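FAQ: What does a multi-protein file look like?

Like this. Sequence, then tokens, then the next protein.
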Amino acid sequence: MSEWPFLLRIKPKLSAWRRKRVQRKFGGLFQDASIILFKHDPIGINFEDNTDEYDCEVGTILPRMSRCASANEVRRVVFEEFQRWFTPEVAGDEMRYDLIAN
């Protein structure tokens, strides 16, 4: 497990209070965004029973989306957050996030 990036190792413990605050602020949009990420599963972690797997990422994506004026900007934010959470190699190509942004 030590070969995993630091953020990925502490993901379950990181910023739980911030995620709860974002959930309260965005309400149903938080759940909708989590469902979209789970459905499109850009890094292949959808195992059918872990439906909250992308909640940490949604917690950092949604606050940044208020500055987005287009789907391209949303794609960039989602891509940047996945790079931050999982490393650039795991996040892959930015175009992988096109359907998510749309």
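And here is the next protein:
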Amino acid sequence: MTFDKFVTVYKACGQPEAEIVKGRLEVEGIPVILKYESLGNVYGLTVDGLGQVQVQVPEGYSEQAKGIVSGSCEPDDSE
């Protein structure tokens, strides 16, 4: 099975968090890829997006995936 376009459904603050979210989605049968800058992974930094991991799913699964996971490591500016 091939997928044309992947979209970000979650932004994790690091690799361990991203792996947990990935596992949760895979249990539900949703294909997942993780997109990240390798430098952040090597040094364990989360500064200005460095170390942030984007959890991506095929576009057709995005609504289902968003219903399963919510949130991100970006601060909530609504307060």
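Q: Is there any per-entry metadata?
A: Some entries carry free-text notes. For the entry above: DSSP finds three helices and three strands in the chain.
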